[in-house]
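If you are new to this repository, start here. Below is one unmodified record pulled from the training split, so you can see the exact layout before writing a loader.
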Amino acid sequence: MTPPPAGGAWHGPNDAESALMSLVKDATVRIHRPEPGYAPEGSDGDFLGSGFFIAPSWVLTCAHVAMEGRGRQVNVVYKTARGGDAVRVGGTVRAALPEQRPGAGGWPAPDLALIQLLRPVEHPCVYLSERSTGMNRGAYYFAGWADGGAGTLKRLGRECRVVGTVDDWSDGDEQVLIEASQLYAGMSGGPVVDLARGEVVGVLKSRSMDTNGGTAIGVERLRTLPVPAGAATAESDDPYQAVFHAHDRYHADRHNSPVDDEETWADVQRDLGCVAGPALTPQQRVDLLGRLAKLPPPVSTRSLLDILGGLGYGYRTVGVPAPRGWRDGLGVLYDAREGEEALERILRYCMSAITAERPYVVPSTKLAEDALWDWVKETAEDRLRRPFRREMAQLRYQGRYDRGAEHLRTPEPAGEPVRPPRSPSVVVLHLEPRAWQPDQYDWRVVARPSDDDLPVTENYQGTRADELPARLAPSLAKAFRMCDEPDSPAVLQVVVPPALLDLEVEKWELPADGRPLGVQRPVVIRCSDGRPAPSEDGAREREARWNRIHTGPMRAAVLDCDDGMRVPVPVTAELRGQAYETVPVLCRYGGRSDAQSVAGFGRVLEAGYGVVLWRRPRAERAAACTEFHLRAVDTVDGTGVADRLPQKIQELRKGVREGRPDMFWSDGIALVYGKPQSEPPDPFLQAP
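And here is the target side for that same chain:
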């Protein structure tokens, strides 16, 4: 904190320090043991300790806190806003260092654990340092939960100082000694933030019984998490890379969002007067780390060290965990000398990241490489001389960065057929609101185990929306039995007018099976629209578009969001001019009550698109949406052909249901899938 002037009284933290402390407290959570009759606000004996959000759906805490749960299961409780209500979310311990406590006594260092949340929720995250040596002597601030008296738990924050270590500074499992005036039971697992740099550098481990102090562990010790035995095939294969990529994308997304007015960590770091190494501002750093985090990680630590060595820079091996990710390598470069040379080294490092061997490649990798090159090019043009800029351009397009020789370790695509040998059967559910009773629906169920339709049942007496799942359960169950095959459940195609797009049939639960329909099987939407039949040219165009996405690669195109800002869906003529392989993605769909969303969706359907991906509106969803764009592109482009998309959407829904954070981005995702009709379908017969 700001020291008092000589001979004067200290008046507390300045505005920037106060903002930093608020950001830290907002992300600090408490950990509880799951028990029946749990009271979210009570100090009732199941309180285990503190923790803090470090990435969407990830909590960092101490192993001795997290492993006291029930079978690695814990409850995470946090405040939705300052002074807001407490929210409880289940979590599971994904990794602990070490995994078990050897014998009696306290949990040995590093005593860290990662908890994954079991469902998607919106929450803030701290900023974690990327430096290899996080905690040296100086002033820090910590936060945590403790008994505030009268049986309640309170979130507290205090200043502390690092005064030494339990062992030697170079010890591989060093515990940092801290002095603090008030370090209470229950605060273990809370964050320790560097007040000068404005970043979290450690985790509270223990408190002394006879002094005002305790110990902490640097967050760089997370680099010692086990490395997967085999080559990674996806970001989620390595928890370390998954967590820190999500962390860096989160902070870049929030800072660059044009629609979010809340102060970010980079804003506060700027106000504190921080610098990110010798060459970058906090804003430049958070943007760069976000771009690096969209790339696949380095193939190995050895390959990353080779890149750093090729730049003429190594890392201090004694007592410092080796770097594992792109952010770690950037932190190593912070020790470079000041001036242009430091920035040049960072830009060369970025060029190495662009062209490095890949453990895997996803459809968005090329976009990530281009985005990182744009950053290098713009930064060099703004701050460096022409000869260096020319060198960067040559590295991008020539010599050892020849684009035909990139990513040599990328696995070859699996030898699967372009199309599955047999398309799955379909159960069709037609729903139509009654003209004179719009809150009630007529319906019919049709089984389509092959090319022929087999009517199952129908009802034209009107059924309220809340009664539909129970009324339809027997008919749907019968149709599913007619169409399902082992390991190949029939697709449920829900045919509704555009006004009913908000009906979340994928969440319905049949009485015989508590799982939602969208988890049991693929559930897609087809729009029954009363628009006039298209012209002859329009019909041919729709047929060509449908055939193209079913025989060759697809390309996702986000139509209603640009650089984080909501934009109108293009006019119909422009939509018809899109390439035939285009699959529209709607990021900002606001539901039937939002006129702009309804009109935009209508234009997409009118233009003849039979496959549309969108996400349903959620009140708690954050304004920033870069992660959704990135993953939607990977999902559509990576699926290959359109008739695999329904099964892919089912996999994502299952992942959300099973608590897989790498799939939480898809919460609320929906798919229109149905060949556009060349003629309007037959209407329901309704009584006069």
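Two things worth knowing about this chain: The chain has a mean pLDDT of 84. The radius of gyration is 28 Å.
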